[in-house]
Amino acid sequence: MKYTLTISLLAFTFSTPAFAQMPEKMASDTSGTGYIGASLLTGSEYLGSANEDVTALPYLSFDDIKGFDLFGTALTYRAIELGTGEGLGKWSLRAGPRLAYQAGRDSDDSINLNGFDDVDGSLLAGGFVRTTIGPVGFRLDAGQDFIGGHDGFTADASVGTFYKTGNFAIQPSATLSWANNDFQDSFFSVTNAQSTTSGLDSYNAGSGIYAYSANILSWVEIDERYAVSFFGSYRWFTNDAADSPILNASDGSDQGFFAAFSISRKFDTNKW
Question: Is residue 247 within 8 Å of 254, Cβ to Cβ?
């Protein structure tokens, strides 16, 4: 059963927070394969923005090149790999280190961010654990920013399932996102000085669960060489994030949608 996702985009890594937050695949039994192609994407300008960008960009993904996987904005290594396989009556466990990029936010993205500092992009060092029990998959990703972006620690827990018939596959999933105080302050808090310049109320967002997401991924392989895929994710901000004056401003929103449509060509990396 092929289970490689084909919407990992290197260029988009550095331009959209929605893609940086997308849940990763929970199952894959294809090794030594990669995809290269083009995508059309739409997502929020920044976390909590009601405005969206539409972008066409190239992408690259690969699955198990000497234990390394590239998916979305994350590079992982399979340090632990156990189990009987994936599918009905089988189980698997995979874990290892993870390096992931998260986009930041520019203060000129909104008139309501007047006086705010830019939030630079973040590089998170951490790890992942992924397990499948029959057709159900669970995944936990966590990491700490170490390059001075939001300086925070984040964790995403996902559960999902999949169905495949012929060359077509579909995977629905749900994700819960948690972050510490540094992350929350960077994107959702408003200091007294920022309140004065922007007109937003002062606000201090504490650590905790900040969002839930419902996701759907589908793809079809064509002629064993090409693939067409679609990914959609709807996010609801919650708790302190949902109460932030930034999300409740005139161009803010406590909900967000991200979608990616991709066309790709498969390449073999077994000889690398």
Answer: yes
Q: What is the residue extent of each domain of the chain?
A: 11-268
Judging by DSSP bridges, how do beta strands 136-145 and 91-102 pair with one another? Answer: unpaired
Dihedral sign, CA of 65, 161, 96, 92? negative
Task: Answer for the pair 41, 12: CB distance below 8 angstroms, yes or no.
Answer: yes
Q: What's the CA angle centered on 157, arms 178 and 8, to 5 degrees? A: 105
Q: Round to whole Å and give the CA distance between 121 and 105.
A: 8
Put simply, whether the predicted model's pTM sits higher than 0.85 gets the answer yes
Joined together, the tokens standing for residue 101 give 């990029």
We find that the CATH architecture of domain 11-268 is Beta Barrel (2.40)
- The Cβ of residue 182 has, within 10 Å, a number of other Cβ atoms equal to 16
For the stretch 141-178, pLDDT in tens is 999 999 999 999 999 999 999 888 888 989 999 999 99
Residue 267's region, left for phi above 0, alpha for psi from -120 to 50, else beta, is beta
